Each structure stands twice: as structure tokens, then as C-alpha cells.
Amino acid sequence: MLLYDLIEKCSYRDEYQKEHEQCEDCSYGDCCPRDCQSCLQYVHFPQNAPAPRKYDCIHMADCYYCKYAYKYASEMVYGLSCFAEIRDKKKLKIMSVGCGPCTELAAVDYLRNEGVLNYDQLDYRGIDPLGEVWQPIWNDIIDYFGDGIRFYPNDILQLVDIIVQKKWVPDVLIFQYVFSDMYKHSDEKQIVQFIDKLASFLNSYNQEPIYILCNDINLSKSMGGGREFFDLLESKIQTPKIVRRMHFNNVNRERNYEYGGQYDSSELVFNMISDEIRNAYNPFESCASAQMLIKKERKK
Known about the structure:
Radius of gyration: 19 Å
Protein name: Class I SAM-dependent methyltransferase
Organism: Eubacterium ventriosum
Strand order of the largest sheet: 3-2-1-4-5-8-6-7
Number of strands: 8
Low-confidence stretches: none
Mean pLDDT: 90
């Protein structure tokens, strides 16, 4: 499967880089902690960073995948499984906004292997402005899937323009840990403008249903998340639509934040974690996100 294939490649590259002074050319300069996992913590918790930190260092990518992919891809399996209508699509078109290392593709690959998805052709478009950071993983993904996988190293705010210009509309639109990251590193007005523009397109498009899956930290803006943007997007999308809010029981926190319904299980789908990977990266071992699932239906 894709996830385990990428874990093997990413961990190999990461170990090779460590042995060859990967931090000598770190983009963080004098602030580099000489440990990619610490750098990732600075990205996720900017209040603890000695200087502003973003996903702008190629050495982060492989470490990131080994630590977060098991959890993020598993959450995507739960979410995508809720969209029963896409299961028998022979040509499945997916667009991921701020795709990064594309953990949703690991979920798609798993569901295809399990017979839940039955596509003959997968068309995937990933948009992320940090193409240089994720390029090695993107190359691995293209090697795995072959034709049908394309990446756009564009600003996320250009999403709607890309759809319109390319005359290519996805069946499934994915926001995987995007809004919380945008809220940490972008102006909130830009996020609202992006949501307005996306909603305007969705409201004007009336050819086929579009499924939207938002998966992110189950925290509000005041606590370092961005879950309110789920609700803002949903409020801007006109009827007819079907909306479902879900969350996982977060076993890593004393308090579990309610958001819609709760999945029956928080167990990882991708649970084959070797001792070597566990000791090196300490990956999360349960799902913990909040999700917004929307089916934007055609007007009758």
C-alpha cells in the first residue's frame, strides 16, 4: 500500500540526511534546533518558536510523513467512507487544497484495495505553494500511481481560478489540516475571502454533486485551531446540501471536544507501525480530528 511504501522511502531519506548533516543548510538559519521534529513543533505551535517558522525546509517533509501520516490518512479513511455515492464512480476526481504530502491519497489507495472504492481511473489534483518542500514525496506518489496525478505549486487562494481555467471540477474536494495552518500563518480576512470565493463557485455550479471533506484539529481559533472556518464554509454554501459534522474521541486529552456526532472508533486504520519508526518518530496512535462532510447537491 501507498502509505507503507512512502514510510519506507521517507524514513530512509530522513536517516540518510541525518548522517549527512541535513541541518547544515536548514532554512531556519541560526534558530535551527538540529532536529526536524522540533522544527515541526515550531510550525504547529508558533508561540513556542524562537522565530516565525513555516513548512519551508525540504528536510522536514520526510520526518513529517513518518510522524503524521498514520493518523491523518486514517482520519481520511473514516471521512471518505461516509460518501457512499462515490464508491462506484469509475472515474474519480479528487482535489486536495494545501495537499502537502497527500495523506488522503493513502486513504484512497487503501479504500481501493479494500473494495470500498471501485474506480478504474483516478484523477487527482493537489494544490500547495510549497512544491519544493514536498517534491520528493510527490515524485514517489507519481511513481506509485502513474498517470492521473498532478500537482500545482500555486497559492491556495488560487483554487477556484485553477478549477475554472482548467475546466476540471472535482467529485471530492478535500481540506486536510488546512484551515488551522492558514489561521496560524495567514491573515484571517484572506481566509474569509477564499471561503467566499469557493462558496460562490459551488453555489453557481449545477452539473454534478460535489462532496467536500474538511478534516482538521478539533480546536477552535482561540485554542490554536480553526474549526470555525468549517462552519463558515458550510453557512456560505446554499441549499440543496447534506451536512454532517463528526469528531473522534481524543484519547490524548482529558477533555474531549464535542463537534457533531462521534465516530464509534478512534483506532488507526494504518496501525502497522514498526518499532524502528515508533522509536524514531513517535507517531500518533489514534485519530483525534473534527470533520465537516458536505454534499453540495444539484438544484432541481
